[in-house]
Structure formats: C-alpha cells, structure tokens
Amino acid sequence: MKSRPSKKGHASDAGPSQRQLRAGELIRHALAAVLREAELQDPALAKTSVTITEVRMSPDLRHATCFAEPLGGGHAPEVIDGLNRVAKFLRGRIGREIDLKFTPDLKFRHDESFNAAARMNSLFDNPLVRRDTGRTGHGEHGDEE
C-alpha cells in the first residue's frame, strides 16, 4: 500500500504562499519608496539608482531576501554590499511604512536574471542556434515581418 505524502513536504513543493507573495510585494514597494527618497550615507550607494526587482519572504515573514540591480548593472557587488550595510536603517524606515506584525530582517542579493536574459539573447543571436531553430533573423520561422 502506498503512503500518502505528508502535508509539510507537499506544501514546500508548491512555492510561496499567497501571504508571502503579498508581503513581499508590500516590502518591495516600501523599499523602492525609501530608496527613492532617502539620502543614504554609504559611499557605494551615493548617486546610484537601485531597482528592487523581487522580495522573497520566509514562511514566518520575519526574513526578506531582496533582489536588487543597480541602474546600468555596473558595480553591482559594491552596491549590494552597501545595501547590506544600510539594511538596518532601511528596515527601520520601511517599518513605519508597512502594516505587518513584524518588520522583516532584510538581506540583499544581486538579481542575476538580467544577466541570464542577456546570455539567452546572445545565444539566440548565434548563427548556429538560429539555423537549428529555423530562425533567419527576419522573423519567426524565416518569415519577413
């Protein structure tokens, strides 16, 4: 007789809950507002525009992993280090902006999705890949647009 999978294991396979997603978006919007308005004292963040692309919340909503990308993508490691240095300041500022029981601890990471998209585009531009996919560069399946 087959055993049923436990609910705990099944829930983790399903991804983040609706509650985690809503809280993550709330944090993302609050962070964007604070970063737009605040004068951050860290030299790596001076005169740097940062985009918060995603916020992933822990199941208990006490920890937030914030994915960021500096405008232009340059000097990303320094910017991410700077954001992690001012994380406590940012946490205090967003704590006043959001309505959650706890303000989560913030950890910043570089969003690699832009680099992955650029790698994919360069692969699709490769003549060998275009030949294998049937694309000539004029349009899908060789049709001119």
Brief overview:
The protein has 145 residues and is α+β, with helices and mostly antiparallel strands.
Ordered list of secondary-structure elements with their pairings:
Layout lengths: L6 H7 L4 H20 L12 E8 L5 E8 L5 H10 L1 H11 L7 E6 L2 H13 L1 H7 L12
Parallel strand pairs: 2-3
Antiparallel strand pairs: 1-2
Helix pairs in contact: 2-4
Explain what this protein looks like in three dimensions:
With 145 residues, the protein is an alpha+beta fold. It folds into two domains: 17-111, K homology (KH) domain (GMP Synthetase, Chain A, domain 3), CATH 3.30.300.20; 112-145, no CATH class. It is 47% helix and 15% strand. The chain has a three-stranded mixed beta sheet. Strand 1 (50-57) and strand 2 form a beta hairpin. Mean pLDDT is 80; it is low at 139-145.
Key descriptive features of the protein:
GMP Synthetase, Chain A, domain 3; 145 residues; alpha+beta; disordered C terminus
Beta content comes to 15-25%
The share of residues in helices is 40-55%
* CATH architecture designation of the largest domain: 2-Layer Sandwich
By CATH, the topology of the largest domain is: GMP Synthetase, Chain A, domain 3
**Superfamily (CATH H level) name of the largest domain:** K homology (KH) domain
Runs in which pLDDT lies below 50 for 5 or more consecutive residues are: 139-145
Shape: flat
- Structural class of the secondary structure composition? alpha+beta
The rounded distance between the terminal residues' Cα atoms is 58 Å
Largest sheet: 3 strands, mixed
SSE string? HHEEHHEHH
Kindly report the spatial arrangement of strands forming the biggest sheet: 1-2-3
Quote the average pLDDT: 80
Overall domain count: 2
CATH class of the largest domain: Alpha Beta
- DSSP summary, beta strand count: 3
Nearest-angstrom radius of gyration? 21 Å
Q: DSSP helix count?
A: 6
